[in-house]
Design brief:
Helix content of chain A: 40-55%
Strand order of the largest sheet of chain A: 6-2-1-7-8-10-9
Number of strands of chain A: 10
CATH architecture of the largest domain in chain A: 3-Layer(aba) Sandwich
Radius of gyration of chain A: 20 Å
CATH class of chain B: Alpha Beta
CATH superfamily of chain B: Response regulator
Largest sheet of chain B: 5 strands, parallel
CATH topology of the largest domain in chain A: Rossmann fold
Number of helices of chain B: 5
Structural class of chain B: alpha/beta
Strand order of the largest sheet of chain B: 2-1-3-4-5
CATH architecture of chain B: 3-Layer(aba) Sandwich
Number of helices of chain A: 11
Bound molecules: S-adenosylmethionine
CATH topology of chain B: Rossmann fold
Shape of chain B: globular
Oligomer: heterodimer
Number of domains of chain A: 2
Largest sheet of chain A: 7 strands, mixed
CATH superfamily of the largest domain in chain A: Vaccinia Virus protein VP39
Largest interface: A-B, 14 and 18 residues
CATH class of the largest domain in chain A: Alpha Beta
Strand content of chain B: 15-25%
Helix content of chain B: 40-55%
C-alpha cells in the first residue's frame, strides 16, 4: 500500500465513522481491506482506492464497516450490569413512579449482546413489571443490526459472559445455535445511526450505554459526543462507558457516579456554556458532507 | 493458591484444561473418572471442579450427586465441561447442584468467563 493510499483511507475512515487510525496501522487496513477488495473483483488496495475516489457509495460503506471492530459479549465486564440491576434501575423505579416509563439507549449496540443484556436485567427487576420500557439499539453498521434483530448466537457467543441460568431461561436451542426468546427480542428496537451525526431526534433518555466505541475516536470527537449525549440524558439519568473509557480530563458534561466504576451522571452544577442548546456539527461531519 | 480438580477421561482434555487453569493461577489435581474424583475429594476438597459428563466407572452426574451429599461437599464450585450440549442435560446438571456449564469445544475465553461467573476469579 502506498503512503498516499493509506492517507486517503485514513481520511475517509475518520470522516465517515470517526475511526482515528495512527500512522502505523497499515497492517490492520491491509488485513481487513485486501479480502474485501478481492471479493468485489479488485486486485488490491490500489484499485480499491481508485474506485473509492470515483465515489461509489455502497463500496465506501463496506470499507467503513470492514474497518470497525464489532467484538462484544453478553454482560460485558459484569459489574456495570450488577450496578444496573442493584442500584440504577431501583433508583429509577422510585424516581419515575408516576410516569411508569423508562427510555434506554444503547448507542453502539453491535450484534445485540449489550442491549439484550440490558433487557434481561430489566426483566429481572420485578418492580418494572407493567412499565413501558423502551430500549433503543443503534449502530453504524446495518449488518450487525440485522444479526442483532435475529437474536441468533453461536455456542461460542452464548458462553462468553452469559450465565448458564440465563441461557436456559431466555434462549431456545436451534441445532448448534441459540435464539433469544421473542419476549426479550421484542423489548429492543433497532435503528441505524452514526454517532458523528446529529442524534437529537432520538429524544431524551434515562439511561445511555455508549461503551467501547469512543475508544476508537480522537479527543475532539469524544468531547463533542459527550456534549451532545449530555443533552439527551435526563438530569438524574446515568451514562455507562466501557472499562477503558472515561470523561475525566476530557469533558465536564458528566461526572463519575460515586462508587460505581464505569457509570457517570450529568454534571448539573457546571456553568451553562454559550450555544449549548444548539447542535454543534462536529468538524469531522462537516468535512464529510462537504 | 486455589485448587481445581479436573475430571475427564481424556488425557488430552485434562492437559488442555490444566494449561488454561494454571494460567488462571489454579493448582491442578487430575482424575480420569468419577470414582477417582470422589476419592480425591475425600482426601481434600478442592475450590473448583471442572467436570466431564460421560466417563467410565462413574459419570459426572453421579459424581456430582455423591459430592453434594458429602460433608462439606456443597462448597466446591462445579463447572460441567461436556459435549452434552442440550437444554435437557443442562437443566439436569443445574438441578443436581452444578454452578456453571461449559459446552465443548471450549477455549481460554470461555473457561475464564465461566470461572468469573461463579466468583472464582
Ligand atoms: C466494539 S463494538 C462495542 C459493542 C458494545 N457496545 C460493547 O461494549 O460490547 C463497537 C461498535 O461501534 C460501532 N461503531 C463504530 N463507529 C461508529 C459510529 N461512528 N457510530 C455508531 N456506531 C459506530 C461498530 O459498528 C461496532 O458495532
Amino acid at each position: 500500500m502506498t503512503p498516499q493510499d493509506y492517507e486517503f483511507l485514513r481520511k475517509i475512515l475518520k470522516e465517515r465513522s470517526g475511526l482515528d487510525l495512527s500512522s502505523d496501522k497499515q497492517y490492520l487496513v491491509e488485513s481487513r481491506l485486501i479480502p474485501l477488495a478481492r471479493r468485489v473483483g479488485l486486485s488490491g488496495i490500489g484499485e480499491l482506492v481508485q474506485k473509492l475516489k470515483a465515489g461509489t457509495e455502497p463500496l465506501t460503506s463496506e470499507v467503513v464497516e470492514a474497518m470497525t471492530t464489532n467484538e462484544t459479549f453478553f454482560f460485558r465486564d459484569k459489574i456495570p450490569f450488577d450496578h444496573l440491576k442493584e442500584a440504577v434501575l431501583p433508583a429509577l423505579v422510585q424516581a419515575r413512579a408516576s410516569r411508569r416509563a423508562l427510555r434506554i439507549w444503547c448507542a453502539a449496540s453491535s450484534t445485540g449482546q449489550e442491549p439484550y443484556s440490558i433487557a434481561m436485567c430489566v426483566k429481572d427487576v420485578a418492580a418494572l413489571a407493567g412499565w413501558r420500557v423502551e430500549i433503543v439499539a443503534t449502530d453504524l453498521s446495518q449488518d450487525v443490526l440485522e444479526k442483532s434483530k435475529a437474536g441468533i448466537y453461536s455456542q461460542f457467543e452464548v458462553q462468553r459472559g452469559l450465565p448458564i441460568q440465563m441461557l436456559v431461561k431466555h434462549f431456545k436451542q436451534i441445532g448448534e445455535l441459540w435464539q433469544l426468546d421473542a419476549d426479550i427480542r421484542g423489548m429492543v428496537q433497532h435503528r441505524q445511526l452514526n454517532l458523528l451525526q446529529d442524534f437529537s431526534h432520538l429524544g431524551t433518555f434515562d439511561l445511555i450505554f455508549c461503551r467501547n466505541v469512543l475508544i476508537y475516536f480522537d479527543q475532539d470527537t469524544k468531547v463533542g459526543i459527550f456534549e451532545r449525549l449530555s443533552r439527551l440524558l435526563e438530569s438524574d439519568g446515568v451514562l455507562a462507558l466501557g472499562a477503558a473509557e472515561s470523561v475525566v480530563g476530557l469533558s465536564d458534561a458528566f461526572k463519575p457516579y460515586p462508587e460505581r466504576r464505569g457509570l457517570y451522571r450529568p454534571n448539573t452544577a457546571r456553568a451553562p456554556r454559550a450555544g449549548a442548546g444548539s447542535v454543534m456539527p462536529l468538524r469531522a461531519v462537516a468535512s464529510a458532507t462537504r | 493458591m486455589r485448587t481445581c480438580l479436573v475430571v475427564d477421561d481424556s488425557s488430552v482434555i485434562r492437559k488442555v484444561a490444566r494449561r488454561i487453569l494454571e494460567g488462571l493461577d489454579f493448582q491442578i489435581i487430575e482424575a480420569e473418572d468419577g470414582e477417582k474424583a470422589l476419592e480425591a475429594c475425600k482426601r481434600s476438597l478442592p475450590d473448583a471442579i471442572l467436570l466431564d459428563w460421560n466417563m467410565p466407572i462413574m459419570d459426572g452426574y453421579e459424581f456430582l450427586g455423591n459430592l453434594r451429599r458429602m460433608p462439606g461437599g456443597d462448597a466446591p464450585k462445579v463447572v460441567f465441561c461436556t459435549t452434552e450440549n442440550d437444554v435437557a442435560h443442562i437443566a439436569r446438571a443445574l438441578h443436581a447442584g452444578a454452578n456453571e456449564y461449559i459446552m465443548k469445544p471450549f477455549d481460554k475465553d470461555i473457561v475464564t468467563a465461566k470461572f468469573q461467573e461463579v466468583g472464582l476469579i
